[in-house]
Each structure stands twice: as C-alpha cells, then as structure tokens.
Write a structure and sequence with these properties.
outer membrane lipoprotein receptor (LolB), chain A; 5 helices; single chain; globular
Amino acid sequence: MSLRLLLGIAILGICGPAGGTRAADALPAAAPPSVAPTLEELTRRLAATPGVTARFEEQKHLALLESPVESRGRMHFVPPGCLSWSVESPGRSQLVIEGDRVRFQNEASPEALDLSGNPMARHFAEAFMVLFNGDLEAMKKQYSLRFEAGAAGWRLELVPRSSRVRALIESIVLAGRAGPIDRMVLLETDGDRTVTTFAETELDRRFAATELRELFGAQTSCGSS
C-alpha cells in the first residue's frame, strides 16, 4: 500500500515496493479553505474519529519499470489499532492489522500469511497507527515533522528518526485541503516511490458489528473498546 503508510509491508516485498515525492507530486491546486488548518487541528480531528474509510488509487513508480504499477481498492480504519487495506484491482488482496497481529492474503494464497513475528513489519504497522490515530506526540517521537498550510491546502512531511527505517524510507508526505488526507507519497531511499490518492473519505464512519466481522474476521475485537 500502499498508508503502504504507511506501512513498509510493501517494502518487504509482500505487497510490492513503495516510494515518495518529486516535483510532479506537488500539492494539487484546490479551492482556498476559509482558514488554513494547523497540525494540531488536523491531528485532533483524526483523534476524535470513530472510524475512517476511503477509496484509494495507488501508483508505484519503480526504477526497473518504465510505467507505474497501478492498483485500486478501499481502506478501513477502526481506532485505536485496526486497519484493513484491500486491493480490488488488478487482482484482490488484503492487508489486515488488528492490535499486535499483522496478516496478508491474496488470490494466489488462500491461507493468510502471518507477519506478526516480523519486527520490521510491526514497526511499520505501529507507525501507520500513530498517523491515523492523530497521536501528535507519538508522531513526533517517530518522525521529524515539517508542516505547511496555506491557500492551496496543507502538507506534512515525515522523516523517520529510526536509522533502521531510514535505511529503507527517505520520507512520507501527506497532503490535503481543509480536512481529509487527499494524497500520500512514500519515497524510498533507492528512489522508488508510491503515490496514493484518496477519495470518498469518511472521517466519522461508524462500523456495524457485521461489517467488522467481514473486514477483520469472526473473532475480531475491533470496535469493542
């Protein structure tokens, strides 16, 4: 993914490589918001949400390929620690994070691959949760932050503090307008990058128990807190 935020699972080669920002990925033009948001306001709104869902389109720009690898799907986040990242085309796959458990499944392998014991996978999963939970203090511990906001919207650049993570990821850039995240760009140290755009974003999504079981499994504890 791909938040993949937001997740370095892609970098591990399971969901495909990732990447970050260049001149062509500059903040898109937008209608000026009435008041430019502050970083505190943005994270406070994320921290207050009962759930987030959005459609995503992802482009992976790889040094070995002339054309980007594209995928589309939908993500669901249930605070404080549940994420479903589902690719719907081409092919179908799902990355699921539930608390301290991480698993991946695709059409080629009906059995879910358990990544819970992989320290790097766990680190990236936790980093992703920090972002979507709107935990500004935890975010500052894991990243060096650079935030800009103006008439065109806002832009947040995150540079990993961990040397282990910096060996793989150069930066993560999030951008949006008055509220939701519209774009995420992940830049790898080798120059590969993943550009993810979000649409139909709902920041106040409440999930029914049946939806949670479909997304995270029959025995899920997501949404029970």
